[in-house]
């Protein structure tokens, strides 16, 4: 989802860049045309002034100067607007880059959490597989019996299957319950031995 959003933002930024570039090119062309027109008019007026006389060219010169000032000032305003647009584009670009970085950081955290989760699940699975042996390893006798009883008689039939079907805190509770059963049987065995003595 974040990857799709990132691609969309990049496409939006590219479209805005293209739009701004075309706008800058238009303003540059307009400025070039204004300058060439002013130069051309001054050349014409200079020619008239040289061959016809000052009075014939003076009115045209005044009008040209006024129009030149107006056009050049308008062009200056257009250039200022372009500068504002460029600044706005830079801010937009920085914001999108920042968002993409934040998304990458978030995805990295999610991936890390997923790895930790998988590791915990793996450890839990290994723990479950080993726990049934841990429950009886210290208490079972060499003949496989506790107080003359088999482990199935002490813990109940299919106790391992029941244990394997559990998860989370239930594993700990069941393990403790099974250990208590074994300890109780051990106590009975010790009491019997004491009675014999």
Report the structural category.
Answer: mainly alpha
- Please, how many helices? 5
The secondary-structure element order is HHEEHHH
Oligomer: single chain
According to DSSP, the number of beta strands is 2
The radius of gyration is 45 Å
Please give a quick description of this structure.
The protein is mainly α and 197 residues long.
Walk me through the structure.
With 197 residues, this protein is an all-alpha fold. It has two domains: 2-119; 138-196. It has helices at 2-51, 54-137, 151-155, 159-164, 169-196, and strands at residues 145-146, 149-150. It has a two-stranded antiparallel ribbon with strand order 1-2. α1 runs antiparallel to α2 (54-137) and α2 (54-137) packs parallel to α5 (169-196).
